[in-house]
From TrEMBL:
<dbReference type="GO" id="GO:0009098">
    <property type="term" value="P:L-leucine biosynthetic process"/>
</dbReference>
<feature type="site" description="Important for catalysis">
    <location>
        <position position="193"/>
    </location>
</feature>
<keyword id="KW-0560">Oxidoreductase</keyword>
<keyword id="KW-0963">Cytoplasm</keyword>
<keyword id="KW-0464">Manganese</keyword>
<keyword id="KW-0520">NAD</keyword>
<feature type="binding site">
    <location>
        <position position="98"/>
    </location>
    <ligand>
        <name>substrate</name>
    </ligand>
</feature>
<dbReference type="InterPro" id="IPR004429">
    <property type="entry name" value="Isopropylmalate_DH"/>
</dbReference>
<dbReference type="Pfam" id="PF00180">
    <property type="entry name" value="Iso_dh"/>
</dbReference>
<feature type="site" description="Important for catalysis">
    <location>
        <position position="143"/>
    </location>
</feature>
<comment type="function">
    <text>Catalyzes the oxidation of 3-carboxy-2-hydroxy-4-methylpentanoate (3-isopropylmalate) to 3-carboxy-4-methyl-2-oxopentanoate. The product decarboxylates to 4-methyl-2 oxopentanoate.</text>
</comment>
<dbReference type="GO" id="GO:0005829">
    <property type="term" value="C:cytosol"/>
</dbReference>
<feature type="domain" description="Isopropylmalate dehydrogenase-like">
    <location>
        <begin position="6"/>
        <end position="353"/>
    </location>
</feature>
<comment type="subunit">
    <text>Homodimer.</text>
</comment>
<feature type="binding site">
    <location>
        <begin position="78"/>
        <end position="91"/>
    </location>
    <ligand>
        <name>NAD(+)</name>
    </ligand>
</feature>
<protein>
    <recommendedName>
        <fullName>3-isopropylmalate dehydrogenase</fullName>
        <ecNumber>1.1.1.85</ecNumber>
    </recommendedName>
</protein>
<dbReference type="GO" id="GO:0003862">
    <property type="term" value="F:3-isopropylmalate dehydrogenase activity"/>
</dbReference>
Length: 357
């Protein structure tokens, strides 16, 4: 088993540096417990990189990422950089990393923690027991399809984008979905719009073909509009949802909102060679530097790194159980606090998790 891992650490902007610091403290405990070592290399990205170099993704940062086993990422963006040209904004650094590292699969778990059920906008009996994953194809579809652009036709402005998928892009994301489901509850829901879109017709056809190699896993197809409704009506029925880039963008946010707080939600983006781990929340510049950010999403992203990149599923479970125990013991950061629970800051929440490791 591999014992040494090179990790690119990209804190980014806003609360990014604070929550990344929490994740590294937790990883240090895991390092001692499991006899593994992490070699961290820090890089600039987003607004911090713009301020220093004029580029949201400097070549040196990309080099660090490509020489690492995994990338641990904080968050980017903020009002300070909102008026820059689109291609120079902090978020462009994130998009370029995904493209350069060929990260084709975005994995976003959504789990309802029992002590936080009251935080969800849904009734407790609907949300209790929810444990699903949205698997979003990340490098194709309408976001990257060509041709795209704006022009004038017959005297009026027109904007257009191309929704396109190649067979191999669908195959590889479908394989990830079925492999993942094999280690969970053995059910895949493939989401498309095959009743209207030719590209979705191909998507469904290819997913069915891949399924032939995974007959131990149940497969259902669902139109995206129906999926959006069923996620609210019966979220417990889902295990692994696999879908294209634009549908996945929307469905993963909806699934995340079910659990009540974005501060709890980790994610991973993986490719054939590289893997990238980040919390799904933003940089929250309004609370940056106040030490009150919720570090749990980033700590759970580090847990995903331990499972996927480091092949240490037990270490990942240790972190998840520690987080659950802290919540059961009523410790809360401001975003998930409710009367009768103990409000703690970023550092205190991190220490409580470490105590339970």
């Amino acid at each position: 088993m591999k014992k040494h891992f090179k990790i690119a650490v990209l804190p980014g902007d806003g609360i990014g540096p604070e929550i990344i610091e929490s994740a590294l403290k937790v990883l240090d405990v895991i390092s001692k417990k499991y006899g593994i070592t992490f070699e961290y290399k820090h890089g600039l990205v987003g607004g911090a990189a713009i301020d220093e170099t004029g580029d949201p993704l400097p070549p040196e940062t990309l080099k660090i990422c490509k020489e690492s086993d995994a990338v641990l990422f904080g968050a980017v963006g903020g009002e300070k950089w909102d008026n820059l040209p689109t291609d120079k904004r902090p978020e462009k650094g994130l998009l370029r990393i995904r493209k350069e590292l060929e990260l084709f699969a975005n994995i976003r778990p959504a789990k309802a923690y029992a002590p936080l059920l009251s935080s969800s906008p849904l009734k407790e009996e609907v949300i209790k027991g929810v444990d699903l994953v949205v698997l979003r194809e990340l490098t194709g579809d309408v976001y990257f399809g060509e041709p795209r652009g704006r022009e004038v036709r017959n005297g009026e402005r027109v904007g257009y984008n191309t929704m396109i998928y190649y067979e191999h892009e669908i195959k590889r994301i479908a394989k990830v979905a079925f492999e993942m489901a094999r280690n969970r509850r053995k059910k895949v829901t493939s989401v498309d719009k095959a009743n209207v879109l030719e590209v979705s017709g191909l998507w469904r056809e290819v997913v069915n073909e891949v399924h032939a190699d995974y007959l131990d896993v149940d497969l259902e197809h669902m139109y995206v509009d129906n999926c959006a409704m069923q996620l609210i009506r019966r979220p417990k029925d889902f295990d692994v949802i696999v879908t294209g880039n634009i549908f996945g963008d929307i469905i993963s946010d909806e699934a995340g909102a079910l659990t009540g707080s974005l501060g709890m939600l980790p994610s991973a983006s993986i490719g054939e060679r590289y893997a990238f781990y980040e919390p799904i929340h933003g940089s929250a510049p309004d609370i940056a530097g106040k030490g009150i950010a919720n570090p749990i999403a980033t700590i759970l992203s580090a847990a995903m790194m331990l499972e996927i990149t480091c092949k240490l599923p037990q270490a990942a479970r240790d972190i998840e159980k520690a987080v659950e125990k802290v919540l059961e013991d009523d410790y809360r950061t401001a975003d998930i606090w409710s009367p009768g629970t103990k409000k703690v800051n970023t550092a205190e929440m991190t220490e409580e998790i470490i105590k339970r490791l």
